[in-house]
Specification:
Layout lengths: L9 H29 L8 H5 L1 E8 L2 E8 L4 H5 L20 H4 L6 H14 L2
Antiparallel strand pairs: 1-2
Helix pairs in contact: 1-5
């Protein structure tokens, strides 16, 4: 009975992993851009939205974790209290729970769709 031999191209696999990492960063950057353009974050002087919200990508072995992080101390309090009376002078749609449309609302496939598009381009598929 003949055997089957499978040879994996480790260089190609590494390139696909690198493409996935780049695509993950690009997808979360696109998320940040979409959130900012939707004008949903509370905005007084712009620090929380403009300088304290950033994209972070961590690679742990075969796993890639891309996150949109807001490091401003008030972010958690503002996010989880949609009942607050948010000023709307700078961002007319400002309010709490500002990521919900992207997490489980009408934009919930945004990140997955963006990642798939960027991955196809980065991997040359």
């Amino acid at each position: 009975m003949p055997g089957i031999q499978i040879v994996l191209d480790q260089v190609a696999i590494a390139r696909l992993g690198e493409a996935a990492e780049r695509a993950a960063r690009m997808a979360i950057d696109a998320l940040k851009t979409d959130v900012v353009s939707a004008q949903v974050m509370p905005y007084d002087m712009g620090d929380m939205q403009d300088t304290q919200t950033f994209v972070d990508v961590i690679r742990e072995g075969d796993r890639i974790l891309a996150t949109l992080t807001t490091g401003a101390p008030q972010a958690r309090r503002l996010y989880y209290h949609p009942e607050y009376n948010f000023q709307k002078g700078n961002n007319p749609n400002a309010g709490g729970l500002w990521l919900q449309p992207w997490l489980n609302g009408e934009k919930k496939s945004f990140v997955q769709d963006a990642f798939a598009e960027f991955y196809r381009k980065e991997a040359g598929l």
